């Protein structure tokens, strides 16, 4: 939304403020949002969500991660999404839930961190850049497409579950353990790089 055709606005639910007053992290069309999750939730089908700043994912986000529950095109636009606080029930930066489809494009990074220590027992677990979930009773398994320029990092750069699909058309999946940890999903690599210190694709 623009005032007088010149001043971009940040949208905070029903509140709007100049970007000079409050910092936006994403935009959809001409609307600016201070929450990436909110931008994804209101995103009309087919309109890219474009990052305009780096995003830190922590316990204030839905389920302690960014959640994608429909088709979303995410343009990293030279910025980073970084998991700042890992928890065992949500070790990923982004989760593509059942019924969701995420297309990641543009230069930038999604970093789920290499590992984290459980607050419960001190066990070390692998962080995940993006998790792609299995189907549930009401929705099909998630889908992920990675395009040129995007870099996905984590202990598992991408972790996918039964029936889900991951298509790598470009970019880099860089895992501290595995580039892709595949649990009975479908993986198609058309381009880009998929590598891990242990193995590129663990199936």
Secondary-structure blueprint of this entry?
Blueprint: E1 2-3, E2 7-12, E3 15-18, E4 26-28, E5 31-33, H1 36-42, E6 49-51, E7 55-57, E8 66-68, E9 71-75, E10 79-83, E11 92-96, E12 101-105, E13 108-111, E14 115-117, E15 124-126, E16 128-132, E17 143-146, E18 150-160, E19 165-168, E20 172-182, E21 186-189, E22 193-196, E23 199-202
Spell out the helices and strands N to C. EEEEEHEEEEEEEEEEEEEEEEEE
Helix content: under 10%
User: What's the pLDDT, averaged over the residues?
Assistant: 84
Quaternary status = single chain
Number of strands: 23
C-alpha-based Rg, rounded: 17 Å
- Low-pLDDT runs of 5+ residues are 1-21
The largest pleated sheet is described as: 11 strands, mixed
Distance between the termini: 46 Å
- Structural class by sheet pairing and helices: mainly beta
What share of the residues does DSSP label as strand, in percent? over 45%
Count up the helices.
1
- Shape by Cα distribution: globular
């Amino acid at each position: 939304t623009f005032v007088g055709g010149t001043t971009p606005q940040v949208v905070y639910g029903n509140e709007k403020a100049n970007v000079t007053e409050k910092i936006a992290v994403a935009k959809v069309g001409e609307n600016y949002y201070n929450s990436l999750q909110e931008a994804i939730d209101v995103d009309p089908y087919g309109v890219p969500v474009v990052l305009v700043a780096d995003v830190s994912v922590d316990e204030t986000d839905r389920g302690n991660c960014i959640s994608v529950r429909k088709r979303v095109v995410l343009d990293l636009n030279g910025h980073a999404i970084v998991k700042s606080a890992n928890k065992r029930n949500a070790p990923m930066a982004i989760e593509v839930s059942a019924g969701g489809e995420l297309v990641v494009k543009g230069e930038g990074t999604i970093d789920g961190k290499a590992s984290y220590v459980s607050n419960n027992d001190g066990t070390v677990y692998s962080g995940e850049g993006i998790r792609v979930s299995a189907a549930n009773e009401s929705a099909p398994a998630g889908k992920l497409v990675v395009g040129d320029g995007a870099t996905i990092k984590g202990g598992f750069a991408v972790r996918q579950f039964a029936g889900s699909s991951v298509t790598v058309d470009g970019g880099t999946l860089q895992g501290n353990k595995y580039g892709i940890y595949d649990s009975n999903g479908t993986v198609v690599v058309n381009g880009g790089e998929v590598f891990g210190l242990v193995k590129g694709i663990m199936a």
